[in-house]
Design goal:
- The protein is an alpha+beta fold and 968 residues long.
- Among the domains are: 7-337, Methylamine Dehydrogenase, Chain H (7 Propeller); 646-740, Sandwich (Immunoglobulin-like); 748-803, no CATH class; 806-966, Reverse transcriptase/Diguanylate cyclase domain (Alpha-Beta Plaits).
- Helices cover 16% and strands 39% of the residues.
- It has 10 helices and 77 strands.
- Strand 68 (716-726) and strand 69 (731-732) form a beta hairpin.
- Helix 8 packs antiparallel against helix 9.
- The longest helix is centred in the C-terminal third of the chain and has 31 residues, at 775-805.
- It is flat.
């Protein structure tokens, strides 16, 4: 009897807590490593500040990520100990950094230590800070709980700190004095990891929760209060939860011994849906109602020595810290799920989808069908049981009785028996492209050899060509590409340039022409208004309607569909339009367009087959060539995320300036560099920075690179204006500006002119008083002096002009000079109808040279590279420094065919010999080229030439560097 009860209890426990593979099967992840500038891959802590910067603490320095690059903070910025153990951003958006050396507060670009009685306060790894509503900061150092009053109140030059616990009184009460972690409640109570128990501390009394109250012996390191009011606690080897109003913790430790490793920095938190997240030995675990889900290597998550931190950025994006593999971003966390062969699909190439009346999701792939039953997390590969099903299942539909039908590119018409769970072939046809059930119980088949239809209600299936179609004089073998059913019961079909309609009794034919040309239709979907959307190869997206028997077409503008091939279309129950393309999916909610690709969490960029299927709950399935994506809440796709931009830094002459107030600078021939940043981490690949210097330029410049450089600005008042745009999200940030004043050099100031005038007047007065009889001689002498001074000023002005056209470091032509030369050469090439080559080159991994050998070494490399380039080009060519380690080369008179050898010599001249940077040290340098030829028959502006060359340079970088990429 006792054994039976024990078995029953164990059975209940197994029902209430178990671990399953994650339902979000293949996780779309982006790893940030040394290649991205994160030089240490053992992440120990993470935080996000009010601006949106992501701060990453590692075992060798603190890093700030702005979406483009990582910046390291270490000893030079006031952090003598590089191993960061904790990070915290308080309510005032101040950054606190903890390490084994002490606690530090970021002030400006430096970190200042917080002292107590003249001593630093070491912070242990994984420590969590807490801030009260009044701004008090709570933390643990050397087993003591401290309260730091904010704003900082200094007493004799030191901040006012208070030790809250343990106190002598608490020790006398025999409360555990070993403190590991702290969590502060809104009511002021503290939950502490103390000894091997959990302590609840109200400031007056301490309650110890131990094994009698459901708390196993463990090192309790992290707490979290969830949305329902439950308190979760995470130890090294256990997880427990205290439900509201209960007097005992419930054990929620995942089974399977997946928390057995000691010494792992542990944490517990919640995602945007309120689901509890924590780290296990080699995985991420998530509590889903009554069980744990496990995300590990099988889901694509590699974590090396463990997941050490979790962070949500201001846009809701999830970031994970790994000990050994760097920073990890979970793309589309919480809304995008991916399914592939790893989850039982017969093939990654998905072509069609449908859900039957029993809730079973049927999917057709390139290698047969599969099924996902409700509650399952693995597809049932039906093709394994029936080898005859190993075909390309291009279409799947459900008829009025709930029967599932499938069609293949091999021409097999298949029917699924829900009782036997087997498919049977009922007809052999030409290649089936699409299938569609109508309101009469018929199922239409679009094939490469005409249309077919059959009555799905009939006891004997008779597939035939539709009656009456011959009257339209459409060839029976016409290739039909797609079809749809409108709300009024009309069935629409598209062939190459024919649009057909069947209203249940009669056929109608509408030849399709747009701007006098056949648009070559590829896809169709019917709208709620009984209109049509047409996807075409030549005209893009068209809206079609029939009025009084006349077909009317209207082109729908969509910036995200530009230059993309539309494979399929679907208007969903919301009236939204979905377009599957060769570069992601485009969605239109009748107000805005959005483009989604792998950077958003989409499983693959190229859609496939009949790409979309809307589930009964309005969730969307998308078929691709690399699996299927499941969008749980499509409405989240149009959530507005603030697009921001800021000036991150300003540099000139080795000095740095802030942008929080108007900037006044003395004149200098050295370049002024402004570094922009957009702290938005969604669709980073679609970000583009726009800027102009009002007072110097009228037109806006655009670049994917956030660095802007102006050389030798003339004295005057300027306004630097800037904003950022995201083409995929169709968003643009507000335009911001910085007032800038360049003061004139001393020899062009009013005081200098007054001084010169006063000196001349004094000289005249002295000469007049000296001797009247030598007036003529003295006057002549004075004129000579004036002329000499004027000539000297002219010479000085000419010298300044030359200096303004040359780069101060390399003596190459500067950007302004090169842009003038390029405009002149373009004009000359167009007048004389001669070719012109433009090369944009960038030194590979130049930042590593500066970081490894120092900026003097980088300067030496730049000087030597310019010397080599000048030694290689012809006398008629021009070499200029475009910015940083980028150089621009103008080669008149040559096209790509005749100039390729010169370009290759230039590439070779940079890499063939190591560059000496000191007496005993030299380094190898390579470069990447982007080259475009100016065609006088199809002229382009200088900006367009540079833009195309920059894109080619980007491809050269992507394809391995140390190479040349030409613009065709």
């Amino acid at each position: 009897m006792v054994v039976s009860k024990l078995m029953f209890v164990l059975f209940i426990l197994m029902l209430t807590t178990w671990v399953t593979p994650a339902s979000s099967q293949q996780i779309p992840l982006r790893y940030y490593t040394q290649l991205d500038g994160l030089s240490n891959l053992s992440v120990s802590a993470m935080a996000s500040d009010g601006d949106g910067y992501i701060w990453v603490g590692t075992e060798n320095g603190l890093f700030r990520y702005n979406g483009t690059e990582f910046r390291r903070y270490a000893k030079a910025e006031g952090l003598p100990e590089p191993f960061v153990t904790a990070l915290h951003v308080d309510a005032q958006q101040r950054l606190w950094v903890g390490n084994s050396d002490g606690l530090y507060l970021k002030k400006g670009e430096r970190f200042e230590p917080i002292l107590h009685n003249g001593k630093k306060l070491p912070i242990s790894p994984g420590q969590k800070f807490n801030t009260s509503p009044d701004g008090t900061l709570f933390f643990i150092s050397q087993q003591r709980l401290y309260a730091l009053n904010l704003p900082l109140k200094m007493v004799q030059g030191q901040p006012q700190l208070q030790v809250l616990f343990p106190t002598q009184q608490s020790l006398s009460q025999q409360a555990p004095d070993t403190l590991l972690s702290v969590h502060r409640e809104k009511n002021g109570d503290f939950w502490l990891g103390c000894g091997s128990s959990i302590c609840q501390y109200s400031g007056k009394q301490i309650h110890v929760w131990d094994a009698a109250q459901g708390v196993p012996d463990d090192q309790w390191l992290s707490f979290h209060r969830d949305n329902s009011g439950q308190l979760w606690a995470r130890g090294e080897q256990h997880i427990v939860v205290l439900k509201a109003s209960e007097k005992k913790f419930t054990d929620r430790t995942p089974p399977g011994d997946i928390l057995h490793k000691k010494g792992l920095v542990t944490w517990i938190s919640a995602d945007a849906e309120g689901r509890i997240l924590s780290n296990a030995n080699q995985s991420l675990i998530r509590w889903n109602k009554d069980h744990w889900e496990n995300f590990d290597r099988k889901n694509g998550l590699k974590i090396a020595g463990g997941l050490t931190a979790l962070l949500y950025d201001k846009d809701g994006g999830m970031w994970l810290g790994s000990r050994g593999l760097g920073l990890i971003k979970w793309l589309g966390s919480g809304n995008w799920e991916s399914w592939t062969m790893a989850q039982g699909m017969p093939d990654d190439v998905a072509l069609s989808m449908v859900r039957d009346k029993d809730g079973v999701l049927h999917i057709g792939t390139r290698s047969g069908p599969a099924q996902l039953r409700p509650g399952q997390r693995q597809f049932n590969n039906v093709a394994e049981k029936q080898q005859t099903l190993n075909h390309q299942w291009s279409g799947m539909v459900v008829d009025q009785s709930g029967t599932v039908w499938g069609g293949t590119y091999s021409g097999h018409l298949m029917r699924y028996d829900a009782k036997t769970r087997l498919y049977a072939q009922v007809a052999s046809l030409p290649q089936i492209i699409r299938m569609l059930p109508d309101s009469q119980g018929n199922i239409w088949l679009a094939t490469t050899d005409g249309l077919f239809v059959f009555d799905s209600k009939a006891s004997k299936i008779n597939v035939m060509r539709p009656a009456g179609l011959d009257s339209l004089q459409i060839p029976k073998t016409e290739n039909f590409r797609d079809l749809c059913l409108s709300p009024n019961g009309h069935v629409w079909f598209i062939a190459r340039n024919q649009l057909l309609r069947f209203d249940g009794r009669n056929w109608a034919n509408f030849p399709v022409s747009f701007n006098g040309q056949p648009p070559n239709m590829s896809s169709i979907t019917c709208t709620a208004e009984n209109d049509l959307w047409l996807g075409t190869r030549q005209a893009g997206l068209l809206r079609a309607s029939v009025s009084n028997g006349v077909l009317q077409l209207r082109q729908q503008e969509s910036p995200v569909l530009k230059d993309k091939v539309i494979f399929s279309l679907l208007e969903d129950s919301r009236g939204w339009l979905w377009a599957g393309t060769d570069a992601g999916i485009a969605v239109w909610n009748k107000k805005q367009w959005r483009l989604f690709n792998q950077s958003n969490g989409f499983v693959w960029n190229e859609t496939n087959g009949h790409s979309f299927y809307e589930d009964s709950d309005a969730a969307m399935w998308v078929a691709t060539s690399n699996g299927i994506s499941y969008i749980l809440k499509p409405e989240n796709l149009f959530k507005e995320h603030e697009l921001n931009t800021l000036i991150e830094s300003i540099h000139r002459d080795g000095n740095s300036y802030t942008s929080d107030k108007p900037l006044a600078l003395a004149w200098s021939p050295q370049p002024l560099e402004l570094v922009l940043a957009s702290l938005n981490f969604r669709n980073r690949s679609a970000l583009e920075f726009h800027y102009r210097l009002s007072g110097l330029e009228e037109n806006w410049s655009s670049s994917t690179t956030p660095k802007v450089r102006y050389t030798a600005l003339e004295p005057g008042n300027y306004r630097f204006e800037y904003f950022v745009s995201n083409a995929d999200a169709q968003q643009t940030s507000a335009v911001k500006s910085l007032e800038l004043r360049i003061q004139p050099p001393w020899w062009r100031t009013i005081w200098f002119y007054i001084l010169i005038a006063a000196a001349l007047m004094l000289l005249v007065f002295i000469l007049h008083r000296y001797r009247l009889r030598k007036l003529t001689e003295l006057q002549a002498h004075t004129e000579a002096i004036v002329k000499e001074r004027t000539r000297e000023l002219e010479i000085s002005r000419e010298q300044l002009k030359v200096r303004a056209l040359r780069d101060g470091l390399t003596s190459a032509w500067n950007r302004s000079a090169m842009m003038e030369m390029l405009d002149m050469e373009i004009g000359k090439a167009q007048r004389q109808q001669t070719p012109l080559l433009l090369a944009l080159l960038d030194l590979d991994h130049f930042k590593r040279i500066n970081d490894t050998y120092g900026h003097p070494a980088g300067d030496a490399v730049l000087i030597e590279v310019v010397r080599r380039l000048n030694a290689t080009v012809r006398q008629s060519d021009a070499v200029g420094r475009y910015g940083g380690e980028e150089f621009l080369i103008i080669i008149p008179g040559l096209d790509i065919a005749h100039g390729k050898s010169l370009i290759e010599r230039l590439l070779k001249s940079v890499r063939e010999k190591e560059i000496t940077i000191s007496e005993h040290q030299s380094i190898a340098v390579t470069s990447s080229f982007g080259v475009i030829a100016f065609d006088p028959q199809n002229p382009m502006t200088a900006a367009d030439l540079i833009s195309h060359a920059d894109q080619a340079l980007y491809r050269s970088k992507q394809q391995g560097r140390n190479r040349v990429e030409y613009v065709e």
